[in-house]
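Researcher: Re-running this chain for the archive, since the previous output was lost when a drive failed. Same request as before.
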Amino acid sequence: MNIVSLIISICSFIISAINLYMYIKLTSRYNDMVSTQTLTAQGAFETQIRSLISDATKELTHYSVELQRSPDNTILQQAYYTAEEQYRNAYEEACGKYIDNKIDKIRFEKLYKQEIYKLVNDENQKQFYATNQSTYASTISVYKEWFSQA
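Model: Regenerated structure tokens:
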């Protein structure tokens, strides 16, 4: 009877060891898959941000040129102001994703540091970033993180 109990115990131990090995292996695979999905999502966010900023820049440039041709056209003036707001909103959304860690922070800083500096310090845009109650809090937060003297 003791031999049967011993054999059953050894078999149970072997099965437990195999289960542990398989669990560790599957957990490792799962973590790799999650990591890959996270990087894919980050890449998608970064592509979306670049596209959003690029489209807003093109639209702002278009209306700027059109407004120079017809400076008294009130419809073009309104379209230009809307394009400016979309431009600021594109950077606000990008900075929000930066703050939420949804994108690669090092790459984001390399790509947008100078653009955000120019935007916040632009004489035509300063009024939107000068107050503490700004609609563009994420942009201001990123700007302060990068450019404030600590």
